[in-house]
Structure formats: C-alpha cells, structure tokens
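Exercise 7b. Backbone tokens:
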C-alpha cells in the first residue's frame, strides 16, 4: 500500500483551491458582492449516520498465530455467508454457522485454506457525513458523493466550490456541491455500504431534489450506489418516476445516460485531442502515465489505448505496473474490474507487466501525465521530476499551488481539472435532461454533444490564456478575453467567474 503523502506543511485544501479564484477575481475586477457570495459555500451540512455492523472475522497477527498452532480447522466455508472484505477480514453472516462443525478457542477459529481468525462482535457504528452546497445561482446544486476515510469539511468545501466553477465552464445550468461519508469502504460489506447510503439519503432527503441538489458518483461510489440513493429518495412518493433526476450516474436500465460510465474519461480524451491538435502533435503513439485506475483513469486509458496511445505505467493506491512498450490495457481492465478475486480492484499483482517502485512513477519519460486518483499528488517536488509535455488533470485538485508554479516555470502544459474532468458532470446534465423529458438518447448523440462542448470550452480557455479572442464555427472566446495573457488555470477561472457573475449582475440581488 502506498505511503500517505506528507501534508503537514500544506495550507488548508480549501485555501489552496481558492487561490486561482482570487487571481481571476482580481484580473476581471469581479463585482465585490459577487466575490463575497462565492468565497464561502451557501450551506455546510455536517451530520452523523449510524448503522448496525455485522460480526467480523479478523486475521490474527503472526505472533498470535503461534499460540493457536494446534487448533483444528472448522468446517465453515468462505463464500456468500463469509463475505471477504478488501482489507483481509470477513463479514460473518450467521448462516455461515448453520450445519458447520466449529472449534473455537478464545474466540479464534481456523478456516480451511484461509488461516486463523478472531471473531469480533459487530454492533452500532457511527460515521461522519457531509453535504456542502456551494452555490446555486446558475442552477441546482450538483456534485459527487465520496466514501473515503480521508474526507473532511475542508476537502468538501474545496470540491463543492470546484463544482460551481466546473458547471459554469461546462456551461450547464447547475451550481456546485459535494459531500460524502468518512468511511473506509474496504473495511465494510456491501450490505453495510447499502445501509450507510440509505441513512445518508434519509438524513439529506429534505435538502435534495432534481431542482435543488443532485448528487452523483465520485471516489468509491458508483451506479449501484446511485440506484440505492434514487430508491431511498423516491420511495413513497406519488410521482417517483418524475424524480429520477435526483441523482445522476445511474445504470442506463434505470434512467442513466448512455456514455455516462466513461464520460469523465472520454472528456479527458476530448481535451487531449484538442491539446494535440493545437500543439501539432498526435495521440497515436503518445506515451502516458496514468495515476488512478478507477472510473476516470481506466476509462481514459481504455479509450486512449484504442486510439493507438501507449499507456506505459499505471499507479493506484496499492502499487504501480510498468511496460515501456505499452501495457495491455484491456487485460489490465479485466484484471482490475472483472476479477472477483481482486477485491481492491488494484493493478498490483497484474500478471501482464512487472511492478515498479511507486516512487519512480512520476519520473518516467512520457508525453502525457494523467493524474486520475486523489488530490494534491503533483507537488512542487513531483512537478520538478516530471518528464512529460502536458498534465491532464482527470482527478480533482491533483496539483498543489507549488506544483502549478513549477509546471509553469518548466513550460509543461496544463489542462486544468475544472475543464479536463468536466465530461462526467456534462453527461450527468444530459442524464438529468433525459430524465425530466422521459427520453433516451443514443450513445452517438451523447458523444457528439459532449465532444462539441468539451472542445469548445477548452478552446475558449486557451484563447483567454493566450489573449487571442476569436470567433470560429466551433467557439466564441471574444466575450471572455481579459486583454493580457495568463496561465490556463487562471484562464479557466476567468471563464467560470464571468459566466457566474453575469447571473448576479443581470438578475440582481433580491435585497
Ligand atoms: P474511483 O474510486 O473509481 O478510483 C480511484 C482510483 O484512485 C483507484 O484506482 C484507487 O486505487 C486510486 N487511488 C486512490 N488513492 C491513491 C493514491 N494515494 N495513489 C494512487 N492511486 C490512488 O474514483 P474515480 O471516480 O475514478 O475518481 C478519481 C478522481 O477523479 C477523483 O479525484 C474524483 O474526484 C475525480 N472525478 C471523478 C469523476 C467521476 O465521474 N467519477 C468526475 C470528475 C472528477
């Protein structure tokens, strides 16, 4: 498992995330009251969820094992009733004990081919939960739900604000929100995650809705969890079918959009295509480093691989795999995402390529770095080591302000997160529209719209950065130019703030 990043010297994540906001606000002389409206969230909801956890079988340490060497095996079988968790423990469902021959000593039993385990009693457990609603001047609050042990108010404030900027850049009628639960999903069963999800929505029920706040997936949440959220929100309503747009990222069979599963990765690729066109280069044969092989990273890698790019290394939370000639991406996807034994869905142990020490990953020679894991990974020190032409931010906030400075100084191009990974929320908007209109669009229709939207918004940002206002058949950057050059991240914020400010200035304040 990768060592956690040292964060002690960092300012708050929210303060760091807001730096481009203040830079852009200065540049465009943002209306002072609009600045006040945007510099803090509208609402910060912090609450607690309780569930009843099941009993656990916890593996013994090697020292403890010595004490139980002669303990005979019990006839309990691993399987559905003994549910394996990604952290090496098992959830013990009582039916596992029916008709079993059990030998217990001091609460320890031996399971054939699995080893020695101590039974730990379950019981009620409490989790801290969050929903931050940052701004809704352009439309309903919109943002993902993250289940992770390292979440905090600070993180969700930053991510909710980023959603406000992102939805404005994507030019979709949504605001910004984010939330989630402080939980380690690897330590919990499917049923426990379901109970957490149902309680989360139960507590939020009055402050969600297709026209008020619309959650979607983020790290460790997926279409299955979105389905539970929809069910919990709509259960008992007289018009449940009219409320399907309360969450996005659902399975296509229950109101999800074609193309949503891979939309964020697809959007990253559209931005990279536009970057390559502008740089006069090609993605065919381009060499990539991909960090994170979940929804975003694996989809982007699959699409780029199919286009002829070479994914030379992939890193996730548990390890790194590397092949100079290019990894066999379909085989790696199958290893991670279609392999029931790979509970952590990790690239680690992939038989098709050797492992690489984690610390060597960012120093590999490549054309494109694609961070698609957690925030704050590209620090100043990592940016100094990078040997790539462009960083395409699939993750939210992967580059620290120091990392940004180094990238600028080293003239490494940047496709900032708030445009690069906006494909997910853009197709979420398409999903929401289809739900409200009771329509089902084809994948081709979704891709055509997404490509046009991603490429034109990216081109507007590049024109702002280069101070080259122009109108082409695809985009019009003239209303957003600021009369001087700036970096891409500030340019992205300029576009977001100009679009948001227009609402306040044209609609006015109700008092
Ligand atoms: P996911 O849970 O599907 O996958 C996360 C991946 O990151 C996993 O492979 C995990 O092993 C890896 N990871 C976690 N910690 C790591 C570490 N310390 N070092 C290396 N790898 C690590 O999540 P996702 O939905 O793919 O989201 C990834 C990023 O993209 C997040 O920053 C998220 O906010 C952002 N994002 C996601 C979406 C979306 O539609 N899912 C949209 C926009 C942005």
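Sequence design result:
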């Amino acid at each position: 498992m990768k060592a956690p990043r040292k964060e002690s010297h960092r300012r708050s994540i929210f303060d760091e995330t807001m730096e481009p906001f203040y830079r852009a606000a200065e540049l465009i002389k943002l209306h002072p009251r609009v600045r006040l409206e945007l510099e803090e969230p509208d609402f910060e909801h912090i609450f607690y969820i309780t569930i009843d956890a099941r009993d656990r079988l916890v593996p013994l340490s090697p020292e403890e094992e010595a004490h139980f060497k002669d303990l005979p095996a019990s006839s309990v079988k691993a399987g559905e009733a003994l549910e394996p968790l990604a952290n090496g423990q098992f959830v013990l469902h009582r039916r596992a004990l029916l008709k079993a021959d059990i030998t217990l000593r001091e609460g320890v039993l031996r399971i054939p081919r699995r080893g020695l385990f101590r039974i730990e009693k379950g019981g009620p457990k409490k989790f801290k939960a969050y929903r931050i609603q940052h701004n809704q001047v352009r439309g309903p609050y919109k943002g993902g739900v993250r289940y992770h042990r390292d979440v905090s108010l600070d993180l969700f404030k930053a991510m909710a604000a980023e959603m406000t900027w992102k939805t404005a850049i994507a030019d979709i009628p949504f605001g910004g929100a984010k939330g989630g639960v402080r939980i380690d999903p690897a330590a919990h069963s499917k049923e426990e995650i379901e109970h957490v999800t149902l309680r989360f929505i139960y507590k939020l029920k009055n402050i969600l809705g297709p026209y008020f706040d619309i959650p979607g997936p983020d790290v460790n949440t997926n279409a299955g969890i979105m389905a539970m959220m929809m069910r919990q929100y709509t259960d008992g309503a007289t018009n449940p079918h009219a409320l399907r747009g309360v969450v996005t990222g659902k399975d296509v069979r229950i109101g999800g959009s074609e193309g949503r599963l891979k939309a964020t990765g697809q959007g990253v690729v559209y931005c990279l295509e536009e970057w390559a066109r502008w740089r006069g280069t090609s993605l065919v044969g381009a060499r990539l480093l991909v960090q994170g092989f979940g929804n975003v990273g694996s989809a982007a890698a699959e699409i780029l691989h199919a286009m002829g790019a070479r994914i030379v290394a992939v890193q996730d939370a548990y390890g790194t795999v590397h092949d100079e000639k290019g990894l066999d991406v379909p085989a790696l996807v199958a290893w991670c995402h279609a392999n029931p034994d790979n509970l952590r869905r990790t690239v680690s142990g992939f038989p098709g390529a050797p492992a690489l020490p984690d610390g060597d990953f960012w120093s590999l020679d490549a054309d494109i770095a694609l961070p698609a894991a957690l925030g704050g990974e590209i620090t100043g020190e990592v940016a100094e080591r990078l040997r790539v032409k462009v960083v395409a931010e699939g993750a939210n906030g992967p580059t620290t302000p120091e990392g940004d400075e180094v990238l600028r100084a080293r003239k490494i191009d940047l496709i900032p997160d708030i445009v690069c990974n906006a494909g997910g929320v853009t197709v979420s908007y398409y999903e929401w529209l289809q739900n409200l209109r009771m329509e089902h669009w084809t994948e081709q229709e979704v891709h055509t719209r997404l490509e046009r939207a991603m490429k034109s918004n990216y081109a507007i940002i590049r024109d702002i950065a280069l101070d080259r206002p122009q109108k082409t058949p695809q985009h019009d950057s003239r209303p957003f130019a600021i009369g001087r050059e700036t970096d891409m991240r500030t340019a992205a914020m300029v576009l977001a703030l100009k679009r948001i400010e227009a609402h306040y200035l044209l609609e006015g304040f109700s008092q």
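Instructor comment: Residues 2, 217-220, 264, 291-297, 315-317, 372-374, 394-396, 421, 424 surround nicotinamide-adenine-dinucleotide (CB under 6 Å). The mean pLDDT is 95.
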